[in-house]
Amino acid sequence: MNDLHDAPGAADTTLPAKAPPALTTLHARLNSLLGGAARAWLDRALDEAAAHPGTHGPVSVWELRIAEAGRRCGPEYAEAARVLLLYAARADAPTLARVYRQGTADERRAVLEALPHLVTGPEALPVVEDALRTNDTRLVAAAVGPYAARHLDAHNWRHAVLKCLFTGVPVDAVADLPDRARGDAELARMLGDYAAERTAADRPVPHDLHRVLALTGHPATPTGTDAPGDPTSPDGVHGTEGKES
């Protein structure tokens, strides 16, 4: 959705009242970029979702619209459209989990992007944890967004940061990284262990590792006894065999 943040705004007419400002802006910018047919389809789909939110039968109409978004809006704008549809449908944590479980990788990413706008508590963490078990870098990047920053505990959040380093996801994707990393001596130790392991294997140490280490304010102190290795290890939120999307 990055391109949408740089696009000019347009009037918002179909999102529910009291929508978060970020989503109101997203909808306005999406409208300014879509062609007439795509914009009309999105307006109808959002109206449908707002009029018939929640779950109705095996598959709700708005869920079908989520599946159609790529064809109707184009792949570059489908994720934003799906996030807006999820919000208009007022999807709760169980509904989001179902849409995620049954969706394509692109639809799963939209669920992850929608989480901070729809779920206030930790009940959607299983969705985040599942995404972090994959090696799909787009899912990992979405999983470490604002929802994870609010609700992942320290242990699992540290392993999520290591997962980014291991898979090559830029740490800029990690929401609230400076605040959560500040003063974290355990994260510094884990980074030191990972760097030592890479160096011993004659492999390059990711530049982002040094960035995160600097944020902790602690020097690296590898112990040699609990090196993180593959951050998909079972002691974090990740399993050794990640579910691929």
Automatic annotation (TrEMBL):
Low complexity biased stretches: 216-236
Spans annotated as Disordered: 214-245
Q: Which InterPro entries match?
A: EboA_dom
Name the NCBIfam families on file. EboA_domain
**What name does the UniProt record give this protein?**
EboA domain-containing protein
Q: Which organism is it from?
A: Streptomyces liliiviolaceus
